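In the design runs reported in the main text, the only information available to the sequence generator was the tokenized backbone. The following block is the verbatim input for one such run; it is reproduced so that readers can re-run the procedure and compare outputs position by position.
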């Protein structure tokens, strides 16, 4: 089958469906999409509220708990104990399928009745209630999409952390802070794309380093200071003169770090040990197309955060060890043949279902556990189920759902955005594809206005002592004003410092932050490339790299053409750096 150009019914731009895409759609028996890859990604992200947490009363036991659903939500939410308990039965809410109404209208009616789980977590959560999308964590606070970690605060999209703070996309690291896209590091801060670093600060794109400062593109290096090799004595003498505990000094160093990064060549993409792959941050994989943060997987397209062991995964956000998964978000561990799902775990053959655990052969179900052959939470026999599902699919095509903006939803589309339980600015869609209120409303998304905050500011940011050495326990649990005060970063406007946090800053000699955790997260996120690709040419014009004049190599990169970085193809980058 040849490639075909389609027009996105959402953004009205043309997009290409490749021949291998058609083969995948045939394999899972779905029609090709009518939304372009980016619009599909935004639509899925609009169902994933990671960072906005609220206190709410359980709709069954009335106990107060932490959830990502605000108090006045239209949806019924149970605390973890009640949701997993035996005081309710999801089958109680069963609905007979009605061929007189569009499918998504019926699904939404069920959605508003079935109790929802307060946060999408996996495995053990020990003393870590302030978090979401986490798995097997202990003593973690305000961590999101973090697995197998402990004693860490304000981290996201990470794994294997021990005593790490304010970091994203960090793996297997200890005593690290303010870092991005790095792994196997110890006692480091302000790292980006660093592997196996020890006792280092402000390092970009380096591996196997020890005691290095404000440097880039280092390999097997020690005692580098501003990219200059020093003796141990010289290095220690200069480092000991640096006042890292000063906020003013630290802010200047951050600016120096940003300038240094822009002055050195960048490889067009972070793709390691991978074949036939396009995107960014792809490791040990093959046949990856326009995807981001993919590890040890194959045949992946238009996806993000695909973890080890995945195969044949298209249009997915958040999955591990899954196979034949399409247009889904929060897929959990080991899903198989799951289509159009949200917040599923260890299940197979699920279609248009949400928050189901350890299930199989479900269509349009919510909140089921250890069930099979159900439709709209109604139990059927295997024969009844297999007879009814094709009729529902035909009905979805004959009587499609049409949203408020005229977008048509037949079988083969993910849930309409207007069915999301979250406002656009509560979700990760706002992180990766930011909008202002007017833009969001124009595009048909819900928007949550800021709530009235019933607190009094104890400390303004300008009144915080400059140096961490001048701070003591008086700062703990005081209400501190966020320096931003008004921004588009899900700003909480104020924040507190907890005891473990102050201990960490003192131990690592880091200044107290002036921004709330959300604004700090957005600040780090701005240093990371977007989830988009542009077709560009190598910027190298050095003859010694094997070409005369400017290099003619072309590639797909997540560096936009108007960005300041110097972007090289892999060949020119390797000759320049190595």
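Verbatim output:
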């Amino acid at each position: 089958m040849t490639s075909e150009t389609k027009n996105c019914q959402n953004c009205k731009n043309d997009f290409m469906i490749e021949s291998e895409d058609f083969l995948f759609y045939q394999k899972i028996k779905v029609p090709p999409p009518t939304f372009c890859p980016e619009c599909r990604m935004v639509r899925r992200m609009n169902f994933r509220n990671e960072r906005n947490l609220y206190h709410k009363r359980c709709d069954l036991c009335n106990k107060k708990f932490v959830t990502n659903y605000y108090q006045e939500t239209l949806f019924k939410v149970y605390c973890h104990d009640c949701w997993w308990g035996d005081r309710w039965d999801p089958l109680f809410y069963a609905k007979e399928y009605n061929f007189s109404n569009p499918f998504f209208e019926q699904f939404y009616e069920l959605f508003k009745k079935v109790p929802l789980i307060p946060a999408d977590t996996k495995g053990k959560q020990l003393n870590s209630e302030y978090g979401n999308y986490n798995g097997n964590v202990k003593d973690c606070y305000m961590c999101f999409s973090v697995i197998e970690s402990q004693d860490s605060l304000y981290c996201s999209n990470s794994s294997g952390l021990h005593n790490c703070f304010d970091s994203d996309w960090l793996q297997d690291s200890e005593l690290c802070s303010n870092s991005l896209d790095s792994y196997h590091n110890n006692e480091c801060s302000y790292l980006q794309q660093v592997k196996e670093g020890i006792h280092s600060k402000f390092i970009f794109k380096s591996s196997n380093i020890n005691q290095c400062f404000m440097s880039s593109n280092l390999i097997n290096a020690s005692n580098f200071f501003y990219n200059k090799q020093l003796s141990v004595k010289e290095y220690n003498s200069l480092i000991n003169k640096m006042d890292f505990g000063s906020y003013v000094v630290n802010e200047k160093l951050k600016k120096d770090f940003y300038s240094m990064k822009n002055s050195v060549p960048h490889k067009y993409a972070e793709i390691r040990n991978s074949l036939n792959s396009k995107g960014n941050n792809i490791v040990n994989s093959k046949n990856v197309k326009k995807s981001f943060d993919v590890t040890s997987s194959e045949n992946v397209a238009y996806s993000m955060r695909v973890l080890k062991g995945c195969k044949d995964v298209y249009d997915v956000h958040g999955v591990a060890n899954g196979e034949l998964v399409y247009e889904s978000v929060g897929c959990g561990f080991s899903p198989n043949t799951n289509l159009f799902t949200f917040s599923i775990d260890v299940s197979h053959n699920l279609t248009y279902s949400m928050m189901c655990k350890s299930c199989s052969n479900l269509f349009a179900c919510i909140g089921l556990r250890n069930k099979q052959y159900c439709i709209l939470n109604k139990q059927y026999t295997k024969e009844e189920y297999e007879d009814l599902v094709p009729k529902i699919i035909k009905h979805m095509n004959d009587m499609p759902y049409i949203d408020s903006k005229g977008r048509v939803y037949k079988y083969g589309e993910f849930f309409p955005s207007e069915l999301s339980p979250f406002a656009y600015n509560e979700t990760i869609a706002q992180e990766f594809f930011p909008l202002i209120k007017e833009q969001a409303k124009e595009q048909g998304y819900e928007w949550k206005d800021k709530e009235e905050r019933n607190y009094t500011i104890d400390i303004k940011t300008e009144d915080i002592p400059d140096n961490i050495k001048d701070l003591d326990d008086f700062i703990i649990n005081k209400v501190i004003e966020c320096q931003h005060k008004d921004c588009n970063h899900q700003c909480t406007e104020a924040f507190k410092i907890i005891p473990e946090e102050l201990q960490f800053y003192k131990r690592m000699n880091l200044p107290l932050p002036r921004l709330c955790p959300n604004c700090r997260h957005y600040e780090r996120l701005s240093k990371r490339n977007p989830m988009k690709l542009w077709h560009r040419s190598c910027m190298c014009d050095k003859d010694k790299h094997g070409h005369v004049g400017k290099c003619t190599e072309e590639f797909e990169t997540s560096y936009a053409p108007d960005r300041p970085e110097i972007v090289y193809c892999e060949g020119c980058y390797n000759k320049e750096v190595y």
